[in-house]
Predict the 3D structure of the following.
Amino acid sequence: MYTANREYIKRFGPGRIIEHWLNAGVFVLLVITGLAQKFHGYDISQWIILLFGGIDTTRVVHRYSGIALGILTFQHILVASFGILFSRWQPSMIIHLKDFRDAVDNIRYYLGLSEHPARCDRYDYKQKFEYWGVVIGGMLMVATGLALWFPTVVTRLLPGQLIPVAKALHTNEALLAFLVIVTWHIYNAIFSPEVLPLDTVIFTGKISRERMVHEHPLEYERITGIKLPPHHEGHAAAEEAGTPSS
Amino acid sequence: MNIQKPHLIFSVVLAALLSFSVAEAQLSETDQACLGCHQMDQSIKFGSGETLSIKVNANDIEKSVHRIIGCSTCHGFTADNHPQRSYKSKKEFSSLSARKCMQCHDTKKNKIHEKLIRESATTTTCTDCHGSHNVRRVRELAKGNQYCLTCHSKELEVHYKDGHRERAMVDEAALNKSVHKNLSCVDCHVMVSPEDHPVRQFQNKRDFSMVMAENCRRCHFDKYSRTLEGIHFKLLTQGNAKAPICSDCHGTHAIASARKDKLANAQRCEQCHKDIYAIYAKSVHGAALINENIEDVPICSDCHKAHDNAGPHTANFRISVPQICAGCHAKKEIMQKYGLSTKVVDTYLQDFHGVTMKFYKQFGQTDKQIAVCIDCHGVHNIVRVKNQSAAVVKQHLLKRCQKCHTDATANFPDSWVSHYEPNIKKAPMVYLVDLGYKIFIPFMIIGLLLQIVLHLWRYAVNR
């Protein structure tokens, strides 16, 4: 519940905070144990595998971390679906046409072709891109990982060639996810001058009014009812006018 | 060290001989009388039908050490008393004649003489080695190996305690063809020398061979020390006398380089490992060696090692299999002759099994099992995969897969893209997925990095 005189605005409840912690932990474990297998020739990989007690235990850790990721992804989808269907949650993660326009506008702004950045709602296009990357990528990784874990079960009904295909998908998608996280996510959450030294919102659950106004002006206007100074040229601001969250 | 002594004796004898021959070149009158008849071409006939020339060369006698004792000392005849005698055979004649030698020569002084006379006086006689009219010390007749061969080129026998008898004759031609042709007999037969030939008694031939094989290490110590790690040595120490020793594989007098003739080398193993050799002979490797004489193929010792063959049932051996196969299958110069790919080793090492094997090996977890080359291809029965229908290969492969993946079904073998780098023909789906990511990953990451750079630039400009 928002009150006008507060410096901070509540953004995430404990559920989402814990979910992020768990996802981050499992992701780190998976990346360490997985990339060490993918790049098994490097000294650092061999050091990691030895640290886990050999290739077999490394794989066991990787597989059970994978199960944890599967559970996290599955429960997230369930919770989100139920929330949207029965608790009147806003499906604020849905990608709209506006997100593509926002991306173009932002790049125009970066290049100096436009005076102002895109005006975003609860989640900007970068966050949506990452979110769906994690959800869809996670499902892909879990599915292909299970196929590699139980190849004889998969090939009982499906053609054998799917196993090397699953391996190709799993290993490439893993590398992609890892690279996106270390460049894009780490930049946006740590090194971006706007958040340096750390974007604490996902850990504390609250965002400063200043950042809210700056980064999520549409949501700010909606939940406070305060109309921000019109420094937004181009597209209509009232496009996403929804009901304030309670 | 001992060389000087015989030389000294020899020179003294030679000097004495020379001085005698100058002073007393003439034979006694009695002997001259004998030669009166015995310088003519005559021969006598034995009961066996053999003939022997009784012509005596005066020159031989003049040079021999016996020239001063006169013909009758040995023959018993004089010009006045020359009875007619008949002998069954040449051998009987010479063995009876040789008895005369013992009148002067103490045969018990030399143990090997004593033994020869005791055991085979009728087959081996003094004159066989020492000559008759030109009688000499053997040492004067021959040097080096020829000294030994003076006796050992003859029909001699050795007797073992178990009653077994064996020829002690050495084939000089084989000796001269061997790799040891420049060595002396005594280099290996260390217990004997021209001065001393002790009589040794062995229980059986195997005992003798085992004792003799101990001498190989005097030169080949590196090989010997490797055998200490081998399974054959282990069996020997456990009391299995059938386990091979050096000479069982390398031979004795006809010893040859084991590397020269691969087929002969493999056949040495066959002596004991008949069943395995029969399987090997039918395999792609064995058939090429035996039928086509292709020496690029491995023989037993190429995989199992010769001296430090620790046996194939050790975990260390299993885990070293890919390395053994890679010894040939990763070598372009060998593989291109037969149109084979050298990628087989790398594709294995990059795959699940290969990676696992590598880590087991690296961390010394050799007790753990993972598929290596032989688990799919077989061991001694390796066959060519090319030229066979894919269905047959797949069917065979499934059985091999099922050794570990017990619940594998007919589709399962296809999950192995075989030893190919994925390409559009062999594994199109894998190839396309890889290709897609190869393009997509750089595209995505470069795009994101550009956005970061732009963002930073905008931020700097705004300030």
In short: Confidence is low (pLDDT under 50) at residues 19-24 of chain B.
